[in-house]
């Protein structure tokens, strides 16, 4: 009884969430069919669909997506792992904190895109540069949130660790990391979103190569708006899926917390 | 092993810096605790009773004078000295079982032995069936049971308890006091319990250390020569309690030093009002066993 109530609640939620996208699609289709907008600027849904089909079957759309996802995941993993390590160092070492944190806080104010010229000079225009850029995008939110979480570990629990004669390693793995986990998860979640945005940015700005960003550039250059639209829609869908996956993982890792809803 | 579990506090003073001034939390305090003894420390807020406990446990070492356990000076925390705080201080991301196991994290037992000890300890505090529960799923009393289990699981020589039942409701508190007394009698662990609840101090302690505030000093040590387990309604217990209350009264009524302005006003809350009511209460109920008679100062 309760289960069916919950699931009908869920269906309602999904239905409400889908309302606006469907309305937009209808509006899009209606305006391009009625000739309200120039199809060269906004292609008909059907065109987009056919282009997607063509890219999928004749060209290597899955491969392009694979390239983008690979860069995204590689950069994200690299950036967040380094971010957690770096923030742990800053939060737990007074010397490192005093030496590095002010500089980091200054550097993080620089727009990510401003790093692109430097990265391209240091790392070239290939995969390496793109992954570094994506890693940087993930690194910053992970560092900020992890640092915050580590700084807010309750002194009460640290004292319990003292009373139980925890070693420094135990203090980090048994108290600091788990206690900061909600903040770390927030940082990693943001890092995942930023790194996906940065993946496209990297593909867009760091020369043309395989990837969804390259697909969009190709579409623009050939004035193939349908192709551009296919790229944009894929970016949105992948971003949405990544976000949902991150939320699921976060819920699982933080299942010990008092449920707030 | 238990014969060496002897806690010796001699001539200990502790000062804190508060707003640029010096505050004497403890002033030349001396106290010996015998192996297997249950000592309770009672006093008004600011009498340094928690400070004394933290010094004994080794969580605070900035004192003058000597704190010794089993013949060695206490220079920091040790697995031979367990501690239970007022708040359960469980790790919210660990289940009850794993929280209790934290007490064995650095103990020299095999994995199987640890599991066994944890299970036994959980049974001892009556939490069987809740091993896999997370702290937020527990009531206050259950969480504190887990806290006590964590303090006891390593079988320390001495267990320090810092107002362990202070945040619990009266019924839960009475139950846990009884259970703590049983555990103490069974396990023969020396216990030092700090409380502001006179009934609790008298009910549990072999000796009741009465402290007076500003500066924190031991005013008197009242022996409670009654066998455990005790009847809360016993007339002897009631008269000892009244005696302790009288001493506490005299400590708060005396001329206070000027530093009192910095302290919260609650210190002045007179225990007298509750006393006169509580003093008669147990006797006016001849039958039945009222487990609830708390006289907090």
Shape of chain A: globular
Number of strands of chain A: 0
Q: What structural category arises from helix and sheet content of chain A? A: mainly alpha
Write the CATH homologous superfamily of chain A: MetI-like
Radius of gyration of chain B (CA) equals 19 Å
CATH architecture group name of the domain at 2-80 and 156-280 in chain B: 3-Layer(aba) Sandwich
Strands ordered across the widest β-sheet of chain B? 6-7-8-3-9-10
How large a portion of the residues of chain A is in β-strands, by DSSP E? under 5%
E-strand count of chain B: 10
Portion in helices of chain B? 25-40%
Q: Any idea what the shape of chain B is?
A: globular
What is the helix fraction of residues of chain A, given as a range? over 70%
Which pair of chains forms the biggest interface, and how many residues does each contribute? A-B, 19 and 21 residues
CATH superfamily of the domain at 2-80 and 156-280 in chain B: P-loop containing nucleotide triphosphate hydrolases
Structural class of chain B: alpha/beta
Order of helices and strands of chain B: EEEHEEEHHHEHEHEEHH
CATH class of chain A: Mainly Alpha
**Major sheet description of chain A:** none
Stretches of chain B where pLDDT is under 50 for at least 5 consecutive residues are 1-5, 255-290
End-to-end separation of chain B in angstroms reads: 37 Å
Helix-strand topology string of chain A? HHHHHHHHHH
């Amino acid at each position: 009884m309760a289960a069916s109530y919950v699931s009908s609640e869920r269906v309602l939620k999904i239905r409400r969430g889908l309302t606006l996208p469907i309305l937009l699609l209808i509006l899009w289709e209606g305006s391009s069919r009625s000739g309200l907008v120039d199809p060269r600027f906004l292609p008909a849904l059907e065109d987009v669909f056919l282009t997607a089909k063509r890219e999928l079957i004749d060209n290597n759309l899955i491969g392009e997506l694979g390239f983008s996802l690979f860069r995204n995941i590689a950069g994200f993993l690299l950036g967040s792992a380094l971010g957690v390590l770096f923030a742990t160092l800053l939060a737990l070492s007074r010397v490192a904190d005093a030496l590095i944190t002010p500089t980091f806080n200054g550097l993080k104010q620089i727009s990510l895109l401003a790093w692109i010229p430097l990265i391209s000079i240091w790392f070239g225009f290939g995969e390496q540069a793109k992954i570094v850029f994506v890693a940087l995008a993930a690194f910053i939110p992970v560092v900020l949130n992890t640092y915050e979480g580590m700084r807010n570990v309750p002194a009460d629990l640290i004292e319990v660790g003292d009373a139980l004669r925890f070693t420094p390693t135990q203090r980090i793995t048994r108290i600091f990391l788990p206690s900061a986990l909600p903040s770390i998860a927030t940082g990693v979640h943001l890092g995942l979103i930023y790194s996906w945005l940065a993946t496209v940015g990297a593909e867009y700005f760091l020369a043309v190569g395989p990837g969804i960003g390259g697909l969009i550039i190709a579409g623009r250059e050939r004035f193939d708006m349908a192709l551009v639209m296919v790229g944009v829609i894929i970016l949105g869908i992948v971003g949405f899926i990544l976000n949902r996956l991150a939320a699921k993982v976060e819920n699982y890792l933080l299942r010990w917390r008092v449920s707030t809803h | 092993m238990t014969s060496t579990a002897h806690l010796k506090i001699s001539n200990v003073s502790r000062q804190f810096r508060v707003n640029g001034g010096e505050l004497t939390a403890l002033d030349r305090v001396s106290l010996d605790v015998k192996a297997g003894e249950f000592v309770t420390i009672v006093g008004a807020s600011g009498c340094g009773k928690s400070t004394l406990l933290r010094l004994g446990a080794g969580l605070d070492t900035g004192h003058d004078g000597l704190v010794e356990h089993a013949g060695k000076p206490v220079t920091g925390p040790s697995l031979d000295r367990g501690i239970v705080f007022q708040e359960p201080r469980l790790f919210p991301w660990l289940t009850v079982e794993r929280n209790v196991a934290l007490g064995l994290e650095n103990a020299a037992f095999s994995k199987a032995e640890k599991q066994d000890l944890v299970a036994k300890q959980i049974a001892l505090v009556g939490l069987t069936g809740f091993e896999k529960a997370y702290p937020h799923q527990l009531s206050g009393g259950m969480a504190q049971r887990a806290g006590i289990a964590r303090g006891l699981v390593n079988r320390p020589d001495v267990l320090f308890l810092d107002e362990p039942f202070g945040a619990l409701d009266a019924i839960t508190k009475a139950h846990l006091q009884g259970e703590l007394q049983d555990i103490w009698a069974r396990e023969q662990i020396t216990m030092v319990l700090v409380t502001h609840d006179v009934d609790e101090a008298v009910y549990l302690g072999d000796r009741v250390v009465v402290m007076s505030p500003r500066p924190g000093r031991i005013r008197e040590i009242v022996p409670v020569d009654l066998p455990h387990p005790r009847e809360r309604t016993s007339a002897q217990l009631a008269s000892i309690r009244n005696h302790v209350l009288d001493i506490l009264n005299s400590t708060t009524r005396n001329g206070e030093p000027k530093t009192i302005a910095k302290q919260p006003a609650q210190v002045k809350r007179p225990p007298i009002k509750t006393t006169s009511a509580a003093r008669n209460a147990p006797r006016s109920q001849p039958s039945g066993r009222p487990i609830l008679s708390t006289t907090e100062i």
